[in-house]
Design a protein that fits this description.
about 270 residues, alpha+beta, 6-stranded antiparallel β-sheet, 5-stranded antiparallel β-sheet, 10 helices, globular
Length: about 270
């Protein structure tokens, strides 16, 4: 079983970061993970153990740490049997605030962290890897990300509000939301794409897909039709189409050995 340690971040980071998950995993055999699209990118900061990045959008690469915003259909990462690091779960505008990169430039990509932060990414990896335990690593990472936030752009409060409304299970009408924010629909779309990485309509679809995916991974035997209804799909066929678009496969139960970190499913090695 993997070692998993979760940490709820301090108030100073909550505008950009939801939480940290420390992990250490050993396996007798190499294996792959299927990363499905998410409303926000995820940071995986490894302690020197390279990951193999396999994506339809480019040649295979290796990196110790990655910024992941999986394309439609998902992407794969894998390692030879050992992995040790921290996953950073971000808010919808967190990656924009921490990196300063317009989010449409990373949507659908899986980047080595050095492509985003240069030498600072190596400093972060080595600093975390040298520490002896999870509390000291989480404290170090908190201070480091606070520094990045202070030097990064401040997201628009209206984009932050829009993200919350668009993800709500009751849904949102984009035109009505734009009027509430006193923006044109086009301007709302432009700002969302820049600071979140997706159009408002895509945010709604991804939020619905993520709710459905969570229900699929739960042990209770809920039917696909019931999940489709609960998550706001017009019918089961609509649910299946969206699932194929975002996950690259038809809706199936997530395997019992699901990787314990958000939006990752462990797959058999090839």
């Amino acid at each position: 079983m993997p070692e998993v340690v979760r940490y709820r971040v301090s108030p100073s980071l909550r505008a950009a970061v939801v939480g940290f998950t420390g992990y250490r995993e050993y396996s007798a055999d190499p294996f792959l993970r299927h990363h499905v699209p998410n409303i926000t990118p995820l940071l995986f900061i490894g302690f020197g153990v390279p990951l193999r990045i396999l994506s339809a959008t480019g040649p295979p690469r290796s990196a110790s740490s990655i910024l992941q915003m999986a394309p439609a259909g998902g992407c794969l990462t894998g390692h030879g049997g050992w992995e040790h690091g921290i996953q950073v779960d971000l808010t919808p505008t967190g990656a924009y605030q921490l990196t300063g990169i317009p989010m449409h430039e990373v949507t659908g990509r899986c980047l080595a962290l050095e492509e985003v932060w240069g030498a600072w990414a190596h400093w972060l990896e080595s600093g975390l890897g040298a520490l002896p335990d999870w509390p000291s690593r989480f404290a170090f990472l908190t201070t480091a990300l606070e520094t990045r936030m202070r030097s990064g752009p401040v997201p628009s409060p209206r984009v932050v509000l829009a993200a919350a409304r668009l993800q709500h299970p009751s849904g949102a009408v984009v035109g009505d939301l734009a009027a509430e924010l006193d923006w044109s629909r086009q301007h709302l779309t432009e700002m969302a794409v820049r600071q979140i990485g997706h159009t408002p309509r895509t945010v709604i679809r991804l939020a619905r897909f993520q709710r459905a995916g969570k229900m699929l991974s739960e042990p209770a035997g809920v039917s696909f039709a019931h999940i489709a209804t609960l998550c706001g799909y017009s019918d089961q066929a609509h649910f299946s189409r969206d699932f194929r678009t975002f996950a690259g496969r038809t809706p199936v139960r997530v395997p019992a050995d699901q990787f314990p970190y958000r939006n990752c499913v462990r797959l058999p090695s090839r």
